[in-house]
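Task card 7
Instruction: Convert sequence to structure tokens.
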Amino acid sequence: MLEALRTQDAGETAITPIAATPPAAAPAAAPESPSPDLSALDLAAVEAAVRRAAADEIMPRFRQLAAEDIVEKNGPHDLVTVADRLAEEHLTASLTALLPGSRVVGEEAVHADPGVLDALHGDAPVWIVDPVDGTRQFVHGDPGFCTLVALAHRGEVLASWTYAPALGLMAIARRGAGARLNGVPLQAGSPSSGAVLDVATSHYDFTDDEQKRVLATLETGGIAPRPCGSAGLEYLHIARGEIDATAFSWENAWDHAAGLLLVHEAGGASGTVAGQPFRIEGGNALPFTAARDAETARRILGLLAAAN
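Output:
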């Protein structure tokens, strides 16, 4: 059953601020159908599928893109490339083959048909895919991009893969079983007492005036905010203890599902300004944060909430 991927450990409920559960859906009011059997899912095969999609569709095009390979979606900063599209198609085919009956919510599929998001509310297991997180970096030949894959069921993220092929980094998290980077356990730790907090925030190119106003509350003593790059890699930086927190004002599931589980399983914390866990289905009070520990998350959320 799905419980094969829902392993709990004794410390799991201690690391989210305000609420004592990791990002998950609210309990359904209606009786639930039986969970699909995921006990036979080969997690190593998922990793192999992610690596293969990157090797076949992304890396051959890195620093090799022609002008016609790049398209604006919603403006000059919101780009998509042929690598994004082909990698998502590759992953859609390979992941659903590994788990028959599963669905895929991919960034490019949702752009083409917003109704794809409805799968996040259904009973089938869902693969949440961002084929190239950090497309702008990819377009400019910057290696700071990654492929994000998360497996969720009824809003609960069960496993995730964060792969930065140009950097040689593969981070894998399994709910209740910890997180690893290239096979080595990850532990986010806590900031040193009195240290200035390094916080990655929503990039100003993707925020409106109101969002900028709220995020500006982090421009205070003891905090050093900076615009984020690839969201997936910022979550990895937290899980590695390299930065202290994020403050994000958008909620696309493909940008956050994998990273939130990664941070959680590395001992970190997350929450929204409403004091609730982040919901991958959307409808969150924004901004929200992920942080190395609960104390840091509470501090960031307190500043952000004060702006409302």
